Amino acid sequence: MQQADTALVLFSGGQDSTTCVAWALERFARVETVGFDYGQRHAVELAVRPRLLAGLRALSPEWDARLGADHLLDLSLIGSISDTALTSEVAISMQENGLPNTFVPGRNLMFLTVAATLAYRRGLGVLVGGMCETDFSGYPDCRDDTIKALQVALNLGMASRFRLETPLMWLTKKQTWQLAHAAGGAPLVELIRADTHTCYLGERGTLHAWGHGCGTCPACELRARGHAEYLAEGA
Fold first, then answer.
1. How many separate domains does the chain show?
2. What is the pLDDT of residues 30-58, one digit of tens each?
3. Is 123 within any annotated ligand binding site?
4. Ligand-binding site membership of 142 (annotated)
5. Under a CB-based contact definition with an 8 Å cutoff, are residues 93 and 100 in contact?
6. Which one, of 176, 163, 188, lies nearest residue 132 by Cα?
7. Using CA of residue 111, residue 16, residue 200, residue 104, what is the dihedral sign?
8. 18 labelled binding-site residue
9. Which of 38, 54, 80, 206 has its CA 20 to 30 A from that of 66?
């Protein structure tokens, strides 16, 4: 039976999902995390996950007590059947359908379906994802309507009462930095800046004011602009 005060967070190792873990730790008695290896070009995000989880535990005794098991699942099927800039060594560009070729069709749908399957077995009642319809690249599987429709489908298909939470859905990247500050103060912001990974190209070299990354891909541009706006408001 799913417990309403427990959550499973989709945790990639990026800024958004790390913020979501902190958000969940402030609200639920038990929080577990799940990441997916889907053949992503920026697989370095998976490598930073353990350090981030250790960092979150160190920030608060309460968070340490609430943070439960981490799960890393193989979804390489996604990479084998898709042809995108996130799963192949191709340049980032716009497609004829108006979507960037960083869009991985079905990715979030599969992530949430597999996460619900895991949550069902673990007795976790809430699924938390970092999907956002404000500062994003136009991905249709990040839209609020998509998430709401999927919540209905998952509950019908599993005879469950899952709740899908997307705390970043209507936030700009500036507000996402602010949410992190509200949850864990300057130490959490610094953990996110220094240790998370968002860059689509997997660039991990220089540590910029806003974090690691190439600085030119769409993910880096959003992150850098949001951080600058966050600082401009006197964070």
1. 1
2. 999 999 987 775 578 899 999 999 999 99
3. no
4. no
5. yes
6. 176
7. positive
8. yes
9. 38
- Read off φ and ψ for residue 68, nearest 5 degrees: -100, -145
Residue 211, annotated as binding a ligand: no
State yes or no: 217 annotated in a binding site: yes
Paired strand residues for 208 = 211
Could you read off the pLDDT of 131-156 as tens digits, one per residue? 998 866 678 888 999 999 999 999 99
Four-residue CA torsion sign, 152, 158, 159, 160: negative
151 is annotated as contributing to ligand binding: no
Contact 192, 20 (CB under 8 A): no
Task: Give CA–CA dist 185/218, Å, rounded.
Answer: 27
The answer to whether 25 touches 180, Cβ cutoff 8 Å, is no
Q: Who wins on pLDDT, 85 or 188?
A: 188
Instruction: Choose among 52, 45, 16: nearest CA to 202.
Output: 45
The answer to whether 76 is annotated as binding is: no
Residue 202 maps to which CATH number?
3.40.50.620
Residue at 133: amino acid letter: E
Q: Check the annotation: does 135 bind a ligand.
A: no
Q: Is 220 annotated as a binding residue?
A: yes
Sign for the CA dihedral angle at 45, 50, 56, 58 comes to negative
Q: Is 132 annotated as a binding residue?
A: no
Entry pTM: 0.90
Give the pLDDT band of residue 235 (cuts 50, 70, 90). Answer: low
pLDDT tens-place string over residues 158-205 = 999 999 999 999 999 999 999 999 999 999 999 999 999 989 888 898
